[in-house]
Amino acid sequence: GATVAEYLQQHGIINLITPESFYLASSIKISFIIAYLEFCNNAHNVIAKHTMLRCYNQLFQLENDSTDFEILFSQFIETGKHNAHGVDEMAIALINHFKINTTPDAYITRFMDVLHQLRNTNIITLPAILQWWADNKYSEAASVILPEDYNAISIMTIHKSKGLQFPIVMMPFLNWSVKPKSNEVIWVQTPDEPFNNSIIPV
Question: Which terminus of the chain, N or C, has fewer Cβ atoms within 10 Å?
C-alpha cells in the first residue's frame, strides 16, 4: 500500500485513503505536537527533542540537523505560553507560535477534539494523556473521521475490499503467475497435528 501511495503522490494524486492515513500519528504535525508534550513531561527525553527537530525540519523543508533545539524553542519558551495549565492550551500555544495550522488541517482539528473528549472522561493530566496516546495512537479513537462522500482514492488489500463496490478498480502488481514454477518451493503451516509445530514445504 505504501508503495502505491508513494507512486500516486509522485504523480500529483494526493487525495488518498490508506489504512494508515486515518491515524493521527501519521501526521507530521501531530508527531511534532506529541513530541513537544513528551518533552514538557520530561525535559531529559532526548528522543522527544530529536523528534521535534526532525518534524520541524520536515514541516518547513529544512535540511536535517540544520536547526538548533535551544535556538528554535528559546523564543517560544520565553513567551511562557508553554506553561499553559491545560494540555489543550499547551498544544494550541505550540500550533499558533509555529503557525502549523495556517490552513485548516483535519488532523489537528481531530486531535483537539480528542483532547476535549479525554477531558470529559477525566483524563486530564499530561502523563495520563501521553499514556492514552501510547495505548491508542493506532486505533479508531485516534483517527481522522472522514465523510462518506470524501473524494479520494482508497488503497486497500483484496481482503479488505470484500463486500465493497467501486465504480473504478485498479489492481497493481498483477504480473505474477498463479501457478508456482517447477523449481519453486512453497512453505506452509497447518494447525493439524503432528505438523502444527513445523513449516512444511509443498
Answer: C
